[in-house]
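Thread amino acids onto this structure.
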């Protein structure tokens, strides 16, 4: 688990931008209805994108390219990989569009296996798989599951320090040229807790650790993270309410949930 955490932290540091970076909050260009579809020419896991080559190709074509499949996703030949549209005007030059299609396809690497190179959710997925396996009826190892949720909590806390969601690449004149789809915080939080909540719903220890995860995350959360945490907290409350737990256990879990809400409502100036 520690190795998976360390590898995931390295992938974050390599591929994500810190919140204090002035480049982090660039506006994402809106895709027009008439944008040209870029079709996948092969099938496989999207393992990496050559950002420099894609930026150069889009700049040369005076176009904007949006890759809407993210690293880690499985792409099927003949399905949309992304879209392209001119920075000015209604249509791209046909010859330039053909070259752009060729360059874009070459810049996106598809392989037979998912890798961690640019996949910021890969490590979190590995940790969650360990938790899910530990909670399976054939293994029933809540201790390992709880340890795994601790590692997931640490990764999610680190993610709050990074800009998540789409990445916009600009040319030398600061014109937006490439939009790369990446998971947002809500998507990554769902990945980490949805299945453990379902598989561990009858175990008070697992439910407690999920509440503790939200509390730990609440201490790190920026304002934009509050709603995703509250949404997941509500779903956990609903799950607890559906279980046949005694009154003392239910009251204890309710108290853990209230603690999360109190942390989120605190004045951040008192914790600096």
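Threaded sequence (272 positions):
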């Amino acid at each position: 688990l520690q190795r998976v955490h360390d590898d995931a932290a390295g992938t974050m540091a390599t591929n994500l931008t810190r919140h204090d970076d002035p480049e982090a909050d660039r506006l994402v260009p809106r895709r027009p209805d008439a944008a040209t579809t870029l079709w996948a020419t092969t099938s496989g896991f999207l393992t990496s994108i050559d950002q420099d080559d894609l930026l150069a190709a889009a700049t040369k074509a005076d176009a904007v390219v949006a890759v809407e499949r993210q690293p880690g996703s499985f792409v099927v030949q003949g399905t949309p990989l992304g879209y392209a549209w001119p920075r000015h005007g209604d249509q791209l030059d046909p010859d330039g569009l053909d070259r752009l299609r060729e360059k874009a396809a070459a810049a996106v690497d598809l392989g037979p296996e998912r890798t961690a190179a640019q996949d910021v959710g890969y490590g979190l997925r590995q940790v969650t798989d360990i938790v899910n396996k530990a909670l399976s009826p054939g293994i029933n190892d809540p201790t390992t599951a709880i340890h795994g949720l601790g590692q997931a909590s640490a990764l999610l806390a680190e993610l709050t320090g990074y800009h998540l969601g789409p990445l916009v690449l600009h040319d030398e004149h600061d014109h937006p040229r490439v939009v790369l789809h990446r998971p947002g915080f809500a998507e990554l939080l769902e990945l980490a807790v949805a299945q453990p909540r379902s598989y561990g719903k009858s175990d008070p220890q697992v439910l407690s650790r999920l509440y503790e995860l939200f509390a730990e995350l609440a201490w790190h959360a920026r304002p934009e993270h509050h709603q995703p945490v509250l949404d997941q907290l509500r779903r956990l409350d609903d799950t607890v309410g559906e279980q046949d737990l005694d009154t003392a256990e239910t009251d204890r879990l309710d108290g853990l949930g209230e603690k999360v809400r109190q942390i989120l409502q605190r004045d951040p100036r008192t914790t600096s």
